[in-house]
Amino acid sequence: MVRIRCVGVLLLVVVIGGINAQNVGQRQYPQQFRPGQPLVQSNNRVTPPPQQQQSGQGQATQFQYDTASFAVTELARRIGTVLGQQSNAAVFSPVSIACALSLLLLGADNQTKRELQSVLNFNLNELDIKGVHRQYGRLLRELALTSPDTYPIPWRVNDRCSDDDDEDFAPEPQLIHLANALFVKDGLQVNPTFVDASKGFYNTSINLMDFSGNPQQSASYINQWASDNTYGKINQIVSNYISPETQMIVANALYFKGLWKEMFEKQATTFRKFYPDGHANPSTAKEIPTMAVIGCYPYYDAVEHDAKIVGLPYQGDKTALYIMIPNNSSRSRLQHFQRNLNAQKIGEMVAKMTVRKALVQIPKMKISNTINLRDVLQKLNLHSLFNPATSDLSKMLKPFGPNPDPYYPDRVVFSDSQQQFQQQSQPQQRLYASEIIHKVELEINEKGTEGGAVTASTIFRSLPSVQVRIDTPFLMMIGHDNTRLPLFYGSIYDPSG
């Protein structure tokens, strides 16, 4: 039996210097939402235009995105294009990164706001931006649901493949856990409207910290939060010493655990060659453990992109690992393939997949990444956030003037009066981001041999017509069906690290 565990944690530290802060006090914040509780009913879906079917494949070509899930998938592709030029295994969590940036967007204004909207692909008017926040918050709550999908993936609906070797066992539920937190310096005057919006949209917990008086205890508390919300997989996201200049830490944690729907057999795992720069450069080949299985898998030969896509579903019929690989893949071909992808093309390929009897061979992987996203986001034209002279996160801070509108559980009210932030009794220094650190743990391995185990020779005795051997650079995406959100995404040039 093969088990996959994927964990992503994103840490963003916002630093401000020299503010004369007063105590935040014991303000009573709104009650947190229950998982799945909707803020506003919304069915805003973006549907890519139907494509022509090829070779009888893709009986259903509709793949519906929410505006938010479309934007997050596009963010994944853009970040992946940059990271793929720097790393052999650039795996990250688009959902985790988008969560943290969306929280910053709630508190941003002027140029910083415009740049964040552009990076997040939220290039809409103010009213629509509020709707996207509501929509994105609803999608995040749907991740934890176990009810039947409202918008099933086409290949799940049209599955006509039968596997006589299916094991007789009760499927184990997958686990998706997502948490957002603000760690605020005790005394920083945080805008109640920003607090209410972050809690209402993203169920964010607010924690007052003594960064300057007790930095070690603050670091211990934050690291314990990370450990608790990643089930012990990531135990440290900040050092034992936090700078006294730190005013706020915005953190997001995503934990995913699932079992394959089709079990891999441990006996079939052998050392096979993987070619980090393609078959045309055999001198770069490495012998790595490679798993193999024959079963029913969603598959599409994407001739229009000179590539193939195969899906490995998890138990529970909610998520799948999608592997996209160009024909004759190499480092340069995969980079070219990724540059020419977008969210719509990914959706179209998934929509055209049909379940086929297939041999699938994939590398065992254990990837641990710590990525500083500052340089990556600057390459995506997010500059002002990191510059103390230009960053504008003024909506995070409590304004002078009239009290903000009250908070209601079914709606979030934004103050549109910019004068509240301009009519201050004295100039206030700017909040700016010093670092954006993203940590990911990804593991694909075998655990046990449930059911009647078979030998490797039995597995390869009769090969199906569809054979997918992942032994050259490839793209991977762990997608959640109902929300269309990419939980994890990345380009793999060398699975051995």
From TrEMBL:
Keywords for this protein: Protease inhibitor, Serine protease inhibitor, Signal
Residue stretches in coiled coil: none
Signal sequence segment: 1-21
Domain of life: Eukaryota
Gene Ontology biological-process entries: negative regulation of proteolysis
One cellular-component annotation, GO: extracellular space
Any Pfam family matching the protein: Serpin
Every Serpin domain range: 77-495
InterPro entries: Serpin_dom, Serpin_fam, Serpin_sf, Serpin_sf_1, Serpin_sf_2
UniProt cross-references to SMART domains, sorted A to Z: SERPIN (SM00093)
GO molecular function, one term: serine-type endopeptidase inhibitor activity
Region of interest (Disordered), residue spans: 32-59
Family listed: Belongs to the serpin family.
The name this protein goes by in its record: Alpha-1-antiproteinase F
Source organism phylogeny: Eukaryota, Metazoa, Ecdysozoa, Arthropoda, Hexapoda
